[in-house]
Design goal:
The protein is an alpha/beta fold and about 525 residues long. It has 16 helices and 25 strands.
Length: about 525
Amino acid sequence: MVTAAEGTTLFDWVENHAGRSPDSTAMVGPGIHLTYADLTRRSLEAASGLARLGVGPGDVVAAQLPNIPEFAILLLAAVLRGATLHTLHMPYRESELSSLLAHGGARVVVAPTTAGDRRPAAELVSLADSLPNLGTVVSVGGATEGAVPLGELTAGPPDPAHRVPPDGRRPFLLLHTSGTTSGPKGVVHTSRRFLGNAAGASAELGLTPSDRITSLAPFTHLYGLFTLHIALAAGATTALVPAFHPPTLVDTIGELSPTALFTAPAHLAPFVAAGSLPTELFDTTRFICLSGSAVAPALAREVDDLMARGSVIGLWGMTEIQVGTFGRPSDPLPTRIGTAGRPAPGIEVRVVNAEGNPVPAGVEGELQVRGPSVFGEYVHDPASTGAAFTGDGWFRTGDLARIDSESYVTLTGRTKEIINRGGIKYNPAEVENVLLEHPDIVACAVVPVPDPVLGERGCLCVQTTPGATIDLGEVTRILDERRIAKYKWPERIEVLPELPMTPTRKVRRGELVRRLER
């Protein structure tokens, strides 16, 4: 285990582990085995490749890559050059990529030659003329016309002169918020802000070099990236799942045998509902973290029951802060399945009412946070930055929550998701959590639709298991049996083949609202 004091950058951590135990495994996966010595060498080679492209301190390198070693190598290479890595989610196409790359100003962008039936590197080449800052597209996994193959870029021994002196105050990550209810905003982080947060969480989760950490969330998203950070803090093995693929998930987990699995509820919910997760699958697993979207306590309990020697924990984080709260595997069962845990080391949280005043334990309000990992500003957006902070420096998360007397945080919804029905406001999360217990409901969200009399009514958008049906009558019957107040019942239902999701399987509510308006 290292601490933030033992290194200024992520590469310092990797180099320290390589010096102490060069043959220890850094990454494994299908056809993949990298030691910490390998990861160190390949990162130095990639840094020299970036230097030959003219990348240096202050420049931005973008990555649209799945969970493969090249993502980590590129991140570490950017760190070595004093550059900032800008993450781009794999589902993004030219429309999203053009605006995000223009906003971030990347000089180099790296993407796979192929991804399913797509050719991401070629898509990015087609955008190059409209992006004045973009000088080079690098392709991974094969040749693409107009792009430089990664193998060509990293050929040859690394040049020590290409290693820029480390500086923890230098930006090293540019992330964009998920934008589930509005457009994404750019967030820049420095090593100094993030590394202490990751090292502290890694220590409190009890991670060691013997752990094998798997993320079903993409590294391009903060949740997946956090798992990479804590693995590098501990000198652990990152067991790679390049992309979430339901038909092979059980076999993949069985082959990787993770000791720690980080996943969103929607990744596991269909398997739990179908009873297709054998208990022996998690014989080696110390804990499973459910996060990325609202976690139904019933699902958390069912997953917990699958582990004979392990525990389910919750976690709450944001692009703006990395991890804010998380459960510890030794926490009592009720807090592990019913809360998002306690604050991370160095993080303070509070809940305030509409007037901005702190409320007593157990009372719902807006969750606010402050601490060393909280971001400084939104890129090119001073108005949003100013609105995001209170006068005394607390970040307004937009999440609704309760904090109990022992500092466990229970998330109850989002302030922007509140539905105002005839002047009576309610949080749809309570309804959604009840309905997610239904075995035929894969995902759901209650969103507002305009009403000439009441202003807004709730519309339930739902995705069912293949072949299943559900109607509004059954929904209201379920809610009636659970004694949910009638004003919270959805008054319209839309059954969709698939709900629009972020990369960590959060429902894109804004997209649903726009669809319903058409």
